[in-house]
Amino acid sequence: MVFSVKFVLISILLFSASIALAQSGRVAPNDQTGAATPERSVKELYEEANGYFRKKGAEYDAKKITATAERIDQVRKEQRELAARYAAESGTRKDLLTDDRYYIGMLHWIALNLDGTIDELSKFIAAPDADIERAQKARYTVVVALAKQYKTDAAEKLFAEYLAKQPMKPSEQWRMDVELAKAYETLKDFPHMLPHAATAFTSGKKLLGDPQAADLTLDHVVDTGILAFEAYSETGDREKAEAALDELRYLGSSKSSPSLYYYAVDQKIRYLIETGRKDKAIQLYNSTIASIANSFPDKNKQNDVIERLKARQKAYDLLGAKAPALLFTDEVWFPGSPRMLDDMNGKVVMLDFWATWCGPCVEAIPEMKELNDEFGHQGLEILGLTRYYGENYGLPADHAAELAQVKSFRQQHSISWDIVVANGQEVQLLYGATLLPTTVLIDRKGIVRYVATGTNTQRSAEVRQMIERLIAEK
């Protein structure tokens, strides 16, 4: 993919920048010659800032520079800074026109200044001579900004006003529903989240592939499907929660995406177990393995899904069952004393299978510290489980030296939870933790409620969400 296309796809604005009206120029002194030169209009400043992504993308393409995440982030930062500078300069001008308010508000939007966006665009909307089309764009933008600030009442009021006006764009309605659903999810107001999440999922599926919603991708639709599932789940509508996951599985098949198909099946299996229907979950697992050819004619894609599901089989066995005892061989437990899981009943236990040589494990430490600091006093108990790995992993050949290294590592990273170093893989195999990191969450009654391998943003959110849920259970 060329650099400029990537820039278009990740644009945080998610709507077109084309505006038809021009503005009159003003006159400003030329610092070098003293002669008067036309001052650029606010619209022109906005158009420059808004087009910064495409301009830099074209420059990078011409120079054949690879689009790395670091470079994209840098261009984002430059664009925000440019927009912020132009917004500040424009705000000091005298005799601003109504359209100027619109463009200043949009400059604040590019700069991620939500307060400035809301203030300027609200003034524009209230102006009697505001252009009808731009007023709708302004309402849309302010609704999104208000939702991001969790000001849902004001956002809902303006959303209703948007729906009563013209022109209405389905892609804008979709985005407002998404942002409000996310806001209500954060506020844990699931009854109000539900209609927005359900509408966003339905409209997103219809918009997918629509040229007028070119920025909307399959990933966006999947996100809304997950929102809908979570909303139905949290409000106790099991049938519709499962239906949302079935829709995602169908999308995975129809769009030939093994990863999406696997995600939907895995999520449904976990949901069935979580809601006390493990027999049905196992039936779904077996039927999926047996019928995968109906969903993916391509043999490689069939195998992809099957391998992923089989890798999760041990986790499915564990979920909803009593946590296996921690049977170690010659373990060293520090700084605390060896304990059994039964000794931790009444606490939410997080088993973290890790190693000093595991990069993702090390990267997850700051996040685990946050979880420990936030939930430790509420009953969360973290236990770091590792073993002797020796020379095959670039570690000291003898146990004493390797143990000293692990202790030094713990001190270096200021880890406050207990670490267990085992002489063997028994516990890892017991919990299916053959890949690192693996996270297991056990509830206050000693039941396994979550098992996952690896680390990413979504996984981190899942772990936090599950910990919050288990902490709340008494």
Features:
disordered N terminus; Glutaredoxin; 474 residues; alpha/beta; 21 helices; two-stranded antiparallel sheet; Serine Threonine Protein Phosphatase 5, Tetratricopeptide repeat; 3 domains; single chain; six-stranded mixed sheet
What does this structure look like?
The protein is of the alpha/beta class and 474 residues long. It has 3 domains: 3-232, Serine Threonine Protein Phosphatase 5, Tetratricopeptide repeat, CATH 1.25.40; 246-311; 332-472, Glutaredoxin. 59% of the residues lie in helices and 9% in strands. The protein contains 21 helices and 8 strands. The chain has helices spanning 3-9, 42-50, 52-62, 69-91, 98-110, 114-126, 132-148, 152-163, 170-186, 190-207, 218-234, 238-254, 258-274, 278-295, 299-311, 313-318, 359-363, 365-375, 399-412, 426-430, 457-472, and strands spanning 26-29, 36-39, 332-334, 348-353, 380-387, 418-422, 438-442, 448-453. Strand 5 (380-387), helix 19 (399-412) and strand 6 form a beta-alpha-beta unit. Helix 4 (69-91) runs antiparallel to helix 5 and helix 13 packs parallel to helix 15. The radius of gyration is 27 Å and the shape is globular. The protein starts with a helix and ends with a helix. Residues 1-37 have low confidence and may be disordered.
